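Problem 3 from the worked examples.
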Amino acid sequence: MPPPRTRRRPPLLLLAFLAIGAAVVYGGVSVYRDQQSGTAGKAKVTECTGGRKYQPAIRCRGTWIQGGSLLDGGSVVVGPVEGAGYGDVGKTITVRIHGTDHATKPSLATPLVLWGLGLPVIALSLWGLVAWWRRD
């Protein structure tokens, strides 16, 4: 008579990596949705800060018109322009406007990097869990 099968715990490290990979992929989806939602418009980038040794993130500010033309009751909004860089200062760029909150310069670079990092982590974690599951 074979010995009874004992119940094995799933490897917690693989489950943790699976959750981290899923969070990174979700971050890419969230950034992509932010860049594709909102109203299409133009923003003039006025200034950028950061990008230095102790402030690696680049934060840019700009102006755009919210609510139609100024003659039709629209208003000028000053706020952050996400995805803009030092090369955009003084230029009027195409953005997606999210009300008075922020504007986003569309770019696939960040979502692709996040997906490229997260999907292999998920795949390797699932491969490890399947190998653990099939093991006698």
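Problem 4, a separate protein:
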Amino acid sequence: MSAIEALPAPDRRRMERVRPGSAIHVTVGRGAGTIVDMSKGGLRVRHTVTVSRGAHVRVAFDWQHDHFDAIAEVLSSRVASLGDGAAAATMFESRLRFVHLSESSATVLDRLMTAITSHELRRWIANLHGWSDEEKNDRTSDSGGSFIRCRLVHRSWEKKWTHDREQPGNGFLLPATVSARELATLCDAYLRADADGRHLIRLMAEEETKLSS
């Protein structure tokens, strides 16, 4: 593996993390597992072979036709579930930080994270005018001219009721009839979307606001 320089320790509080919607199988050291979530700085994985905190392990997985390969430091590891000694193996959950990452693997990781975020965003947009029956039952037919304005301030959401239908520049506005589930889904999608994705969310929210008039 052609590696770039050792990566500096990232600020994990500011690192965007995404959770795959389907299983991505990964090799961790000599064990096999799946990815729980990921960021550009590392992974959280569930796997079958114990690892020690501070150890460096090889991490590899295939996605579509691309191969990811890196060296990561084990930040923490715990038993996630106990095996029965026969059919089921003991599973461990570990947090890993990349310390050596090739340019090609960094590209694969970036493409994978973008694909996961885009899939969630497309799913929300597809549901915009066709929420499930359960979600529709949570909404009233008329917002009464009231809206919920959600503004993203230092990666925290500020939510306020308002009668002003203007969309904020750093968030979105939806009719007050929006269900808590819809709102949470959209806030999560917006937080992890890029600039184009956030613009699209605002356009969709604006359309939904107009339909509530």
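Solution to problem 4. The chain has two domains: 25-116, 128-211. The CA atoms of residues 148 and 161 lie 5 Å apart.
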